[in-house]
Design brief:
The chain has helices spanning 8-19, 28-36, 43-66, 70-88, 99-116, 162-175, 189-195, 204-214, 233-243, 259-271, 276-283, 285-298, 303-309, 340-347, 372-388; strands at 124-130, 133-140, 149-155, 179-183, 220-230, 249-253, 326-331, 352-357. By secondary structure, it is of the alpha/beta class. It has an 8-stranded mixed sheet, sandwiched between helices. Helix 9 links the parallel strand 5 (220-230) and strand 6 (249-253). The radius of gyration is 20 Å and the shape is globular. The two termini are 37 Å apart.
Amino acid sequence: MKFLYDDESFSFEALRAAGYAAYGGADLGEVLVTCRRIPEGDEEAWSAQWAATAARIERIGRDALAAGHRVSAREALLRASNYYRTADFYRREDPAADTESARLARASQQTFADAAALLDTPARALRIPYEDTTLPGYLFLADDSGTPRPTLLYHGGYDSTLEENYFALAAGALRRGYNVIAFDGPGQGSTVREQGLHFRPDWEAVVTPVVDFALTVPEVDAERLVLVGTSLGGYLAARAAAFEHRIAACVLHDGVDDFHEVAAATAGRAASTPGGIEALMAQNTMVRWVVRNGRWTFGVSDFDEMVKATEAYTLAGIADRITCPTLVLDAENDQFFKGQPQRLLGELTCQKELIVFREDEGAGEHCHEGALSLFHQRTFDWLDTLFAS
């Protein structure tokens, strides 16, 4: 689904940024004027222009806050956070040494933190015990009554950030009376940047401490915990649910059966390209970003090591251990995991359902970017029905 650019990656990321307008994460006019200043495939211009827009909107938020306009400040700071995240997206050649990448990431985190404090029920920043350190998170509450409610434990995927998780799922959950504990696991957001934690295939080692923590929160209904994972998180959450059986339901957004298969397919493309992976990266924005981001988040030095590292990221022989009701989502035109949700569904032996989001309803992109309202309607209606029964 083309959106503003012919470059597939630029189109998708512009749609992703714009789609968060559904929950105050963007204004369409701001997206349009920003993208108008960015030439096709120009990653430097992408970063500079989104950063400029983010800074302009942040100033609006800071001025509104100083003047006592709480709602206006919150709205502007939420948009600024999303725009700073977008500005940083392609800066993955060497994030550890990229001071501008670090600045943009901090700005996205800070503007969101300041906005989260201005929500009608302010979000609580969390540090969730994990091995010998902690994971960052937020507790979003539907209200301040203290009533235990069904609670989503939510993490993203290959490139998500904790702050983006609010727009991607938490805001829609709050409107429907669900609480949310959103967190960054190893390899995600600030955990990789600030703590040097990298992805691990045994994601139950990440989710079990989060469940332990959730059960100490008075507002959490211990009998109605829902685990949700987005993008690569569709593998990660499924893997965790196979071993962590205190979960009452699992939502895979979208289903991923074998991540190594995706990495190996890219390796196959590289092998048939004169010049190999470096030439393919030079030709293709999406491949370039996938490889660079993977080297960073998996903690490897080159593409071959990255492909090797993904070998354990498969649900073969594991999916049938999931016992909780599971919702598998699928996108008709998914450019990363096409066909994998259906294959995963066939391996599940628990109560299960597949929902396919189609191109002709505007929801066929990876993780249904640009169709948040439809994604949330179908997902939360499924959960409402499940818990009502």
